[in-house]
Amino acid sequence: MAIFRKIAIALGVILVLAAGGFWFITRGDTADLPLEAVTGTDPVLQEADPQSFPTVEIAEPVGWKAGEAPTPAEGLEVKRFAEGLDHPRVLYALPNGDVLVALTRAPKAEGDSGGGIMARIEGWIAARLFEKAGSAGASPNQIVLLRDEDGNGSAEKQAVILEKGLDSPSGMSWRDGTLYVANHNALLAFPYTLGSEKVSGAPRKLMDLPAGGNHWMRNIEIAPDGKRLFIAVGSASNIGERGMTAEQGRAMIWEYNLESDRQRPFAMGLRNPNGMDFSPWTGELWTTVNERDMLGSDLVPDYLTNVPVGAHYGWPWIYYRNNFDRRVEEPMPRFLQEYTRNPQFALGPHVAALGLVFAKQGHVMGSRFAQGAFIARHGSWNRKPPSGYDVIYVAFDKFGNPVGQPIPVLTGFLKGDGTTRGRPTWVEWAGDGALLVSDDTARIIWRVRSPSASPAAGIAPLKSERLPPRRELRDPRASFEEDYLRKSAGSIN
To answer: How far apart are CA 360 and CA 300, in angstroms?
Structure first.
């Protein structure tokens, strides 16, 4: 009996130690700063606090009760545009007023993705997190057409127009009879006539995309000139811990030329770019980006930024222009810091910024929201206290630069008891100028507008004069000295 008693005592001690270890691991890091301090054009970036285990604070979805809705900003109203959808993510408005929504989840994991036992453990943990957050399950792999047939602000028509050939679809765009869809592993083109309730033609593959990974969504956006299509592809890891070979073609935005059917890297060093839209002031591409994890609850802020061709934003070695991530083992390319760009606007750490649209001509959100961008913050799973779980508006100045602090547009998703009614995912403009917001775990599309607003005028593009072409190559210093001497001589006279 004594030996059994000893074994029982030993097992009890082991269980207590295991429970204590689990409690310590899951305790995580609590933020020192309010979210506003880590948001805006000049965020506070604390000293990094690398973590061996991530902070975990998941808001379990409980859904919206009948008659419940998010809380809109003053002067706005919110109603249900469509509901009963199986995990709606990306929204896309067609020119005729129909709205497409991708019903999708992450692709089924295959193998260990080359990461061995640690990758399998990571995958198991991720699956448990997805399950608790309401994102687990097989992908519906459908694109549904939503149509407000009587103009009352809700979609009476819900029709599955495409499912064959889809594999975790997300981004969509349409032009000249062609519907472009990004699966997690390929960019496809389908023949599609506006108004049709079925896509019947076979797809044409335009390019392969790196499959799956930690970040599997692939948003796409056609340039205003209609000649180029941009594809956002997120990384397969947090900081390249599986080696940079596994990151080939990832953490970047691709450009696909629709005239030549050729692709090229457009911008790099973007850990997980998502929403994309073109600045109405300059025509330049902008994107939302999810930054790295496990540096504490105050780091690193997700961001909104412009994306010039050839830009690099530092991932995984650098964040916010001159902050080095010492955890990265892969050698850093030479001179990377010299050409790494600083993001334009911090959206807060771990907020999971996704959908993005700029204010456009004809919107009915009112004058308070006439000069800026709307962004869906899906919400954190690894910050204490939680961040995001809302739709915000970022104001821009007359030169097309973001300013100030974000203004809440829709709140009330996150409850005081730590559960969540839903998670805002994507934003898009309806044909009547209202703002549509997908709420994936709640299976709802929300419609937001100002009942008293008239359709807004468009933002006037900035006009600038082109520099005259250079006729000869000259030393800039010599030109400066000549100009300086000339002006000095004139002032003496």
So the answer is: 30
Domain positions in the chain:
59-449
Kindly tell me the sign of the dihedral angle through the C-alpha atoms of 316, 222, 181, 360.
positive
Query: What is the spatial distance between Cα 88 and Cα 443, in angstroms, rounded to a whole number?
Result: 6
Give the Cβ contact number of residue 454 at 10 Å.
11
Confidence (pTM): 0.89
- Structure tokens given for 56: 């975990």
Assign 144 to helix, strand or coil.
Answer: strand
Cα angle vertex 367, ends 362, 372, to 5°?
A: 80
Residues 142-184 have pLDDT tens digits of 999 999 999 999 999 999 999 999 999 999 999 999 999 999 9
Dihedral (C-alpha) 177, 354, 67, 76: value to the nearest 10 degrees? -90
Fold classification of 59-449 (topology level): Neuraminidase (2.120.10)
Could you give the CA distance from residue 263 to residue 274 in angstroms, rounded to a whole number?
19
- Find, among 279, 275, 295, 298, the residue nearest to 287 by Cα: 275
Q: Are 187 and 220 in contact (CB under 8 A)?
A: yes
Q: Cite the DSSP H helix spans in 81-240.
A: 116-133
- pLDDT tens by residue, 316-375: 999 999 999 999 999 999 999 999 999 999 999 999 999 999 999 999 999 999 999 999
Q: Mention every residue, 6+ apart, whose C-beta is less than 8 A from residue 297.
A: 28, 29, 30, 31, 32, 55, 349, 350, 382, 383, 384
For residues 397-409, give the mean pLDDT.
98
